[in-house]
Specification:
This protein is α+β, with helices and mostly antiparallel strands. Helices cover 34% and strands 19% of the residues. 16% of the residues are buried.
């Protein structure tokens, strides 16, 4: 230490130090806490609390960098509901739901992913969990959560490889997760011929004038593609989207060639007569919002949805509204749907297809349509969450309020509970037991059954608590004589039959109102002691009489 002091005091040594070196050394150190002086002294170094806090900080930083941190939408302590949106990442649905709340002041927490990124497990008791696999910073991150609602914007079944996600739709239905549209309709839309069969039913009901449906032929496999339809025709192979799987056939040679292609796909196919279209109409319905768009091909392609096309919004006519409303009623109702109509050069309209909630948003009002969809989803979430069963509280036994002249609650609390009836005794009906339990325990139990129904001039048994010990033999003899005469009078009375349960009911009500002030503080234990004292007094009285 002396060497260091001499070395640091040297001016040449200090001058050769880098800039700011001495200022860092001269910075005051933070005050250290005093060491513990008890037997629980720990070794010098980092304390246990600081050690664990540093570990927790590292874990939090790692989780935050990996995207595992908890998402608090409305701040700490806010309640939220999880909305799972299945769509491609090009559309940011979180912006559309920003600032929206559910009933009960619940926030909406958005979880957006594609079908290929999610998996789930569901149990029959109603519990389920969805696993979301994402890649962040080149690392695979898996998160589990429990969505309260699902909004599906992606096709759950396609002809492409590894694009069949019907098992996830089944799992969501198994878990009972509400969605827009319904999971039943989404599963039914996985096969276009199945949907077209519903349109055929509407066509048969309404007729060709009100519901002009295009003619179509269904082939379950290539083996049945032998009949030669009129040409040209459009062949649609399987469940394809966005113009894929559609081929225009001009003659029967090409029809045979396309039949061999269907054999390789091992799926069904449909044929429709080719309509030389002037333009096509798309009528969409989002809740109660209707819009119609006209699309005209510029590139000259027979597919108006491919190549260059001009899109413009047209007026919503009653005929268009009838078509889309009719199609929205299939599969139990569609909240979001669209109808494709081809207007031919012959001036006729042909309904060719119906789309569900996976329909693309087109036109100049895409942002408005997405906002309308978000408002509809919020309404459906409120309806679905309000139907969630809430456990009702247990019903409490109704108690009668004391009438005027009845005991107060403070006095009732002082009275001990009644003893249970002895074994082998008469069992009262359940209704009478309930009434007897509600009746206060201060009612005179020495009164025999039916005593209140006797006339007022009938003699009654005096209360045994009024009998006192005789101070002398003469007083004991007189008390014994009076007691003996009263007991004989009671024995001479004819025995009364057991009263009717209704009489017991009225008796309990009568006894509840006919009581004396002294019976307020009488208990069953005091009554037993009074009985014992009376018996002892009677024995002594009879003994004194016979001894004389």
């Amino acid at each position: 230490m002396n060497f260091l002091r001499r070395r640091l005091s040297d001016s040449s040594f200090i001058a050769n130090l880098p800039n700011g070196y001495m200022t860092d050394l001269q910075r005051p150190e933070p005050p250290q806490p005093p060491p513990p002086t008890g037997p629980d002294r720990r070794p010098t170094g980092q304390t246990a609390g600081g050690f664990f806090s540093s570990i927790s900080n590292v874990v939090k930083q790692t989780a935050a960098s990996a995207g595992l941190g908890e998402q608090n939408v409305g701040g700490p302590g806010r309640r939220s509901r999880v909305l799972l949106i299945i769509d491609d990442p090009h559309t940011d649905w979180a912006k559309c739901f920003r600032g929206k709340k559910l009933q009960g002041d619940y926030d909406i927490r958005i979880e957006q992913a594609e079908f290929s990124e999610i998996n789930l497990v569901a149990h029959s008791d109603g519990t389920y969990a969805v696993d979301l696999q994402t890649f962040r910073n080149g690392a695979k991150v898996v998160r589990s959560f429990r969505p309260d609602f699902v909004f599906i914007r992606q096709h759950s079944f396609s002809m492409a490889e590894n694009e069949d996600f019907r098992n996830l739709i089944i799992g969501m239905q198994y878990a009972g997760i509400p969605s827009v549209n319904s999971l039943e309709s989404i599963y039914n839309f996985c096969d276009k011929p199945w949907v077209f069969a519903q349109l055929i039913a509407a066509y048969k009901t309404m007729g060709a004038e009100k519901f002009p449906l295009i003619d179509q032929t269904y082939y379950p496999n290539h083996k049945e593609m032998l009949a030669m339809p009129s040409f040209p025709v459009v062949v649609k192979i399987g469940h394809a989207h966005s113009g894929m799987g559609k081929v225009k056939i001009e003659n029967h040679y090409d029809f045979q060639d396309i039949a061999s292609v269907v054999a390789l796909t091992q799926t069904y196919a449909t044929t429709e007569p080719f309509v030389d279209s002037k333009y096509d109409i798309r009528i969409q319905k989002i809740g109660n919002n209707y819009k119609a768009y006209m699309r005209t091909s510029i590139s000259g392609n027979w597919k108006t949805n491919t190549g260059s096309a001009m899109l413009e919004q047209v007026a919503m006519s009653d005929r268009y509204k009838l078509w889309v409303d009719t199609c929205s009623e299939i599969f139990g109702g569609l909240d979001i749907c669209a109808v494709k109509v081809v207007h031919g050069k012959d001036g006729k309209d042909y309904i060719i297809e119906v789309m569900d909630c996976t329909m693309p948003v087109i036109g100049e009002h895409q942002a408005e349509d997405r906002q309308t969809i978000a408002d509809l989803v919020v309404i459906k979430m409120n309806q679905a969450l309000s139907k969630t069963p809430i456990p009702s509280p247990q019903r409490t036994t109704a108690t009668t309020q004391p009438q005027s002249g009845m005991m107060k609650e403070s006095e009732l609390s002082k009275i001990p509970a009644q003893r249970p009836p002895p074994q082998g005794g008469p069992v009262q009906p359940q209704g009478l037991q309930t009434q007897n339990q509600e009746r206060p325990s201060h009612v005179d139990t020495q009164r025999p059954p039916g005593q209140d129904l006797l006339p007022q001039n009938e003699p009654r048994m005096p209360s045994p608590t009024t009998v006192q010990k005789p101070p002398s033999i003469e007083r004991m003899s007189s008390a014994a004589r009076n007691t003996e005469s009263q007991s004989r009078h009671q024995m001479e009375q004819p025995p009364k039959a057991a009263p009717h349960p209704q009489l017991n009911k009225s008796q309990s009500l009568t006894n509840a109102f006919n009581f004396t002030q002294s019976s307020f503080f009488r208990s069953s234990s005091n009554e037993d002691e009074a009985k014992a004292d009376t018996i002892r007094n009677l024995r002594k009285s009879f003994a004194s009489l016979f001894s004389e």
